[in-house]
């Protein structure tokens, strides 16, 4: 039998209405709950079953200038190689007890590679993407396919693909990594395998094999049957994203429909084999606000992370507001009302865990003032 001192269960007797007055028998009952590893619902109900989500995660903003400076110092002091695998520095949400989680499901990190450096090859069940807010010169090699990384590009590394990165330039490069690491960790579904220590394909093509096969709008290679759970497109290039957003705002100026709200254009990166999200657990979008425009206040089930790609503005999360500028990262917990206001033209990258909740029929959205 487990002794009381070893049990991780710690119960306080609630003094809420309907609870019995303290007595020796009641105290003994509570000690037995603890020692037998039992927790009665009446001590937990408020926490476990709130009227609406009460996430532990907090709204928070990380400054890109500060992240970059710290990443540079890591680049001087900390090598990249086997064991640590990546010089990636994760955002730790202040509500999540110091865990390297931007939100309960999402990992967001700044990764940094010095000139001529390699990050070794590995694969894992966690799904990943890279988003580039500045710089170029690194190729990420996904199952042997070398994918150039440049400002504004979204690069995918779906789960269980071997991948390494190599910096083939004379300048360091930093970028944003997004993964479903916290979700996979919580669910106990993590598998990991090492590949070669050096990236074998050292080619530096402008466009990857997968882009040449897949990245023409609405045109699918007939040789590739069936839907795939992750997008086969390795790189969504900024020139296309930028053109799509500009076109929406031009249509709006002509009085034609297409924008999500006045002065607010948005696109979702999609899997061309399904029309759904790029990764099974991650949604990715780009938003463009005209100077002076604001997004509708919105709250939804599930969490997201935004990165300012260009421009400056303000983000309002619940009853707090932050000024944000290029590169800054914003964690938005579940069900917290969120809106952005553009002080200049403002481009925003967003990723979220929405596919998880949609897949489970647990997604809810509320638009407008809460
Ligand atoms: O680049 O492969 O930020 O495996 C975390 C885990 C990056 C990567 C991260 C990873 C990677
Ligand atoms: Fe990885």
Protein architecture, described:
- This protein has 370 residues and is α+β, with helices and mostly antiparallel strands.
- It has 3 domains: 19-49, no CATH class; 60-214, Jelly Rolls (Sandwich); 238-367, Sandwich (Jelly Rolls).
- The chain is 18% helix and 30% strand.
- The protein has helices spanning 24-35, 45-48, 64-77, 181-187, 209-214, 238-253, 354-359, and strands at 60-62, 88-90, 107-113, 118-124, 128-131, 136-142, 145-150, 154-157, 163-167, 173-179, 192-194, 235-236, 264-268, 283-289, 298-300, 304-310, 312-317, 320-325, 329-332, 338-342, 346-352, 365-367.
- Strands 1-19-16-21-14-13 form a 6-stranded antiparallel sheet. A 6-stranded antiparallel sheet has the order 2-3-10-5-8-12.
- A hairpin with a 2-residue loop joins strand 17 and strand 18 (320-325).
- The radius of gyration is 23 Å and the shape is globular.
- It binds 2,5-dihydroxybenzoic acid (GTQ) and fe (ii) ion (FE2).
- Fe (ii) ion binds at residues 122, 124, 128, 163.
- This is Gentisate 1,2-dioxygenase.
- Residues 1-23 are annotated as: Disordered.
- Residues 111-177 form the Cupin type-2 domain.
- Keywords: Dioxygenase, Oxidoreductase.
